[in-house]
């Protein structure tokens, strides 16, 4: 029988809690849900008013993975949805996860949480910029860190303060809070930064997606600033062999990175980081910290 749990007055059917989702660590679905409940105070502010897309992996990272933007079948009527105009479906709606019951419902789906760089109230008007630094083997996150430091200085030259988090996969994500601007303008600026990075670091960076160009270099992916694209949300778990978290990191950690394993964070690592750092990405939520796009 599926247990029924009450979360802040909402009744939830949380299924298969003993099911092992990540065999490499023996991590169960129940442990994943516990992580999300613990992370909720830090995670939820970064989801607020941002339509969610889900990369679901109910049978673990080696099972079937499927990406969905539409509200999944069986979405409770108390989970908020918002209209999200899309070229493929002008009447589309997507889920908004803004409270603990909604988060636990989403976590029960066993899914990565992905958000756009804009809010439901203003589609295609970005309030942040993101650069996804993706290493092509044999490059690693150590190489991403060197590129991140260069990009941090370059963004600062334009009056934008950068914040870093692990992707939860192989690389890093860099964010900057923006005064709202059309996604097209943000995309063009991000593309320009990626090209500049390649010109300044030609042996280390590539700005084009072609896989043939990427071995041994860091791909600075600027495409996630497009209005139709999304990025793994802060603090989401990833559908990887290890249950890695897309976790914020300090610039001291980025600068000191000499070992790729040092920037892998599992759910058990996050409580101590919350205690020590709070939410390192909190400035992204403060309109007073937003910079103006050049």
Automatic annotation (TrEMBL):
It holds the Pfam family LigD_Prim-Pol. Residues 28-280 form the DNA ligase D polymerase domain. It is an enzyme of class 6 (ligase). Its EC number is 6.5.1.1. Keywords: Ligase. The keyword DNA repair does not apply. GO terms for molecular function: DNA ligase (ATP) activity. The keyword Ligase applies. It comes from the Bacteria. Coiled coil: none annotated. This is Non-homologous end-joining DNA ligase. It comes from Streptomyces lichenis. The gene is ligD.
């Amino acid at each position: 029988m599926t247990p029924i749990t009450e979360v802040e007055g909402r009744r939830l059917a949380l299924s298969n809690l003993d099911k092992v989702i990540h065999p490499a660590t023996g991590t169960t679905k129940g442990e994943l849900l516990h992580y999300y409940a613990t992370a909720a105070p830090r995670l939820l502010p970064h989801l607020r008013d941002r339509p969610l897309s889900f990369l679901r992996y109910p049978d673990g990272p080696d099972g079937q993975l499927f990406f969905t933007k539409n509200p999944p079948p069986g979405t409770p009527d108390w989970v908020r949805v918002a209209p999200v105009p899309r070229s493929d479906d002008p009447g589309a709606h997507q889920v908004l996860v803004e409270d603990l019951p909604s988060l636990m419902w989403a976590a029960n789906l066993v899914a990565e949480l992905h958000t756009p760089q804009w809010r439901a109230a203003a589609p295609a008007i970005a309030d942040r910029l993101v650069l996804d630094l993706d290493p092509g083997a044999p490059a690693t996150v150590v190489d991403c860190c060197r590129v991140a430091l260069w990009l941090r200085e370059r963004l600062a030259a334009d009056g934008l303060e950068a914040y870093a988090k692990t992707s939860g996969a192989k690389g890093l994500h860099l964010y900057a809070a923006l005064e709202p601007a059309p996604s097209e303008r943000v995309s063009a600026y991000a593309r320009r930064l990626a090209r500049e990075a390649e010109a300044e670091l030609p042996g280390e960076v590539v700005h084009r997606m072609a896989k043939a160009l990427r071995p041994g270099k860091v791909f600075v992916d600027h495409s996630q600033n497009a209005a139709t694209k999304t990025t793994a949300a802060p603090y989401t778990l990833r559908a990887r062999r290890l249950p890695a978290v897309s976790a914020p990191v300090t610039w001291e950690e980025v600068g000191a990175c000499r070992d790729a394993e040092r920037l892998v964070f599992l759910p058990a690592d996050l409580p101590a980081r919350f205690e020590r750092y709070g939410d390192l990405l909190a400035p992204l939520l403060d309109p007073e910290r937003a910079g103006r796009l050049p």
